[in-house]
């Protein structure tokens, strides 16, 4: 097993572990922002702020999806390039 493969497996394992921890933490957290700060939700700028946050979140998701697809394409492209080079030799 190559060092790169070991690094990828370790990163995947760590990502799974941390995502499980994050999910657990979120489930154990009871956060009611409107109860904690009612003057925030009633402020005139609140709808614009929420709209900006939602747009930024959607953009972040799109960037993450694009990054994931590029990584997958890079791996598939590398494998295909190796096959082509092997076929040429």
From TrEMBL:
<protein>
    <submittedName>
        <fullName>Uncharacterized protein</fullName>
    </submittedName>
</protein>
């Amino acid at each position: 097993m190559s060092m790169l493969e070991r690094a990828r497996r370790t990163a995947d394992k760590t990502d799974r572990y941390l995502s499980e921890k994050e999910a657990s933490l979120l489930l154990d957290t009871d956060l009611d922002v409107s109860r904690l700060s009612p003057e925030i939700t009633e402020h005139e700028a609140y709808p614009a702020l929420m709209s900006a946050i939602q747009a930024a979140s959607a953009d972040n998701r799109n960037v993450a999806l694009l990054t994931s697809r590029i990584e997958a394409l890079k791996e598939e492209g590398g494998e295909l390039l190796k096959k082509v080079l092997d076929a040429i030799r």
